[in-house]
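Troubleshooting log. The previous structure file for this entry was overwritten by mistake, so regenerating from the original sequence record. Sequence copied from the archived sheet and checked twice against the printout by T.R.
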Amino acid sequence: MKIVGVLGVALAALSMTVAVTAYGQTDTRVPYKGTAAATVVDGKGDMHVPDDYRTAYQLLGSWAVAADNGPGSNQMHVVYASPGTIAAYRKDGHFPDGTVLVKEVFKSTTQSMTTGTVSSADTLSGWFIMVKDDSGRFPQNKLWGENWGWAWFDATDRRKTTSTDYKKDCLSCHVPAQGSDWIYSRGYPPLH
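Regenerated output below.
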């Protein structure tokens, strides 16, 4: 009976040691406490599209990507910023740590209307998410660098990115905007 009791205590102690060791190896802290990013980024730096961005975020603006052939647009991009981003940017010309930018990318449709040839958003292709990171929180995660988290999400799954490396999948489109913190801020009227 004493052997069973001692063995039980030993197993309980071993279980606690394993649990404490495992806990210590996993970052369970909220990486952006008190910011919109806290609901978009987990402890490993994995991101997802916020559920409420159309109602809780601020509209920054939209872009039309011209059609390769003929009149109109091929895509429409509509961009939202987490609450408080516009005021903070206007104050000092910088995106604050924890800023979340959500870009909806739509296939567009073009048609003749009484106002002329008009392109409008049609089918959602997906979302591009950027999260400002001034402190380099996730050096081991290949979606983080240049003071931002970068991720593309297909319209079929707002929780799982298809991006694997921001340098390969995202950065090249933003090189012309490197001087403005990788963001084409001149295209967003609320910032100016």
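Strands lie at 58-66, 73-81, 100-113, 116-132, 144-145, 148-154. Archived copy saved in two places this time.
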